[in-house]
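does this look right to u?? zinc ion version
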Amino acid sequence: MSMVTMPMAEPADEQLLLNLLNTTPVVDGQERDELGDFALARQWLAANGQKAMKHEWQGLLELRPVLQAIVRGEQSPTALAAFLDGVGYWPRATADGLDWDLRAPEGRVAAAKAVVAWDALRISSPGRLRACANAECQLFLIDRSKPNSAKWCSMAVCGNRMKARRHYHRAGETA
Ligand SMILES: [Zn+2]
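got this back:
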């Protein structure tokens, strides 16, 4: 059997994946949904290079909690099966050889890209896509540091907040 080189997700799809995971941030203690209505979602889709269509939005809304649970280790990736119906790669002849185009049913294109990007990351960068270590933060991060030891979505936000809290607790214990 010969080796098959699968097309890899593009960097833009990796960003789409991370941005999708991060559309339910907690702001001032309240969960916010950046895809909460179609007006918001339309802008979000366009900003992420996707077709600003209702079906695409709905597809992402269905996928989002599944992907978030999988990245948190709370759900099996078998749950992704529902998002792979009719998804495939098709070869296209170019001046250099072949390119592979992702095809998915209408309304499932953005979701399929995010799923493929998730799997590409799983293989190329195992364990580097994860939830922020701040239990009150619902954001995710892709750790690109050499030691792969980043804990927080952002040092400026959660990193400092968690440090300040530890300091506060220590100060409280000794007082
Ligand atoms: Zn965080």
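Residues 11-126 form one domain. idk if thats expected tbh
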